Amino acid sequence: MKAEIIAVGSEMLTPDHFDTNSLFITEKLNEAGCEVHLKTVVGDNEKDIVDVLRSGLRRSELIILSGGLGPTEDDLTRTSVAAVLHREIRIHPALVEALQRRFAGRGYSMPKINERQAQVIDGARVLENPNGTAPGLWLEEGKVGIALLPGPPRELKPMVERHILPWVRERTGGRRLAGRIFHITGLTESEVDSRVAPVYREYPQVQTIILANPGHIALRMGRWVERGEQVADLEQLAGRIQEALGDAIFSSARETLEEVVGRMLLESGQTLAIAESCTSGMIGMRVTRVPGSSRYFLGGVMCYSNDVKHRICGVPAQLLEDHGAVCAQVAEALAGGVRNALGASIGLSVTGIAGPDGGTSEKPVGLVFVGIADGSRTTHLKRIVPGDRETIRERTTCFALSSLRRFLISGRT
After folding, report:
1. 220 and 312 assigned to the same domain
2. Whether 100 and 187 share a structural domain
3. In 10 A of CB 409, how many CB atoms?
4. Containing domain of residue 186, as a range?
5. 184 and 90 in one domain?
6. Judging by beta carbons within 10 Å of its beta carbon (0-12, 13-18, 19+), is residue 160 exposed, middle or buried?
7. Cα(116)–Cα(96) distance, rounded to whole angstroms?
8. Domain containing 76 — which CATH number?
9. Number of compact structural domains in the chain
10. How many CB atoms lie within 10 A of CB 374?
């Protein structure tokens, strides 16, 4: 079964927003045996939505439209779909009453404009939306299923699970996309490919994709299988790639790098303190995104100035004067200093030049040092990170977490 996704909303054609719903929808459809062969982002323009939908009806068996179901004049998904299918739109009284009750439950009276969200295309089935005011719609035109879903992810995701996937599974007969994924750190995209390309070329029936992300590499393997079909070749390929990459793989599931580090700290019974200069809290933000991180993360110091490095983290003033803030010695002193200051098992530090100014021939923009200390071991790692200021800071954050992970691995072997 072939599906396509039409994401409706002019905001997604700006530099400030992007379509994340299609990633979720694609994953879930693939798991249910449906292949997404096209994704389109279209603005709030009825003619454009109509043109895309008309083309979709000729090439796809399932079309999912997300967004454009709100109450305002630029929410045009319903009217566009009705125009293509030559069907009328009518206000559904029961939906109006449900909307009024929903608003009343929040202590508001419903604005008249919200009645637009009670519009139903003739022949459509209403899809309940427990997390928002815009119900979805399901239609069938010939052999094509058409879903109209709201744009907010917290509303769309449960509706896909509840209303769309059962319809798909009935028609795919157990077919699915079998896959494996490895998340890799400490290697570049070209280094990963040079190690694994000789292996995956032996398995042409398995699609292998290497994706470069800020701070880590993702390697995906997958192939379509029918009900009951074995995937020994996929598992064999995954095993050989795992051997080729070793501990550069930090996850073969959906764990983030900070989740992996947090789990390792918990398992070892250790706590962490962080001193951040050029990243100014970005590492701490990543670490504390993990629920339960308070069990191992004690706190951090944003030691941007030399004075704070000296007064709070105990870096000797003479060391800063002799070598400057960006050097291996200061990185190690920061790690040991923040560890002592906060009473943690491990201290982690970063210092560097994020740019765009401040670089020299000896210390160029992008030069960063990571320091790690645990009381018995103190070490540092150096890297020149490419990119603009924000990219350098993001990559340095990943470099620090990756370095901490390797430090923890070395401590348990």
Report:
1. no
2. no
3. 12
4. 177-251
5. no
6. buried
7. 9
8. 3.40.980.10
9. 3
10. 20
Is 321 found in the same domain as 337?
Answer: yes
Last-in-domain residue among 234, 251, 268: 251
Q: How many C-alpha atoms does 337 have within 13 Å on its Cβ side?
A: 23
Extract the tokens encoding 86.
């030559």
Interval 106-146: pLDDT, tens: 888 889 989 899 999 999 999 999 998 889 999 999 999 99
Which of 157, 172, 187 is where one domain is finished? 172
d(CA 146, CA 164): 10
Answer yes or no: are the C-beta atoms of 144 and 203 closer than 8 Å: no
User: Looking up tokens 């795919």, which residue turns up?
Assistant: 172
Are both 7 and 134 inside the same structural domain? yes
Model pLDDT for residues 230-268, shown as the tens digit of each residue? 889 999 999 999 999 999 999 998 899 999 999 999 999
What single letter denotes the amino acid at residue 5?
Answer: I
Tokens for 15, please give them. 């530099």
Residue type, 84: V
Tell which phi-psi region holds residue 387, choosing left (phi > 0), alpha (psi between -120 and 50) or beta.
left
Residues 389 and 331 in one domain: yes
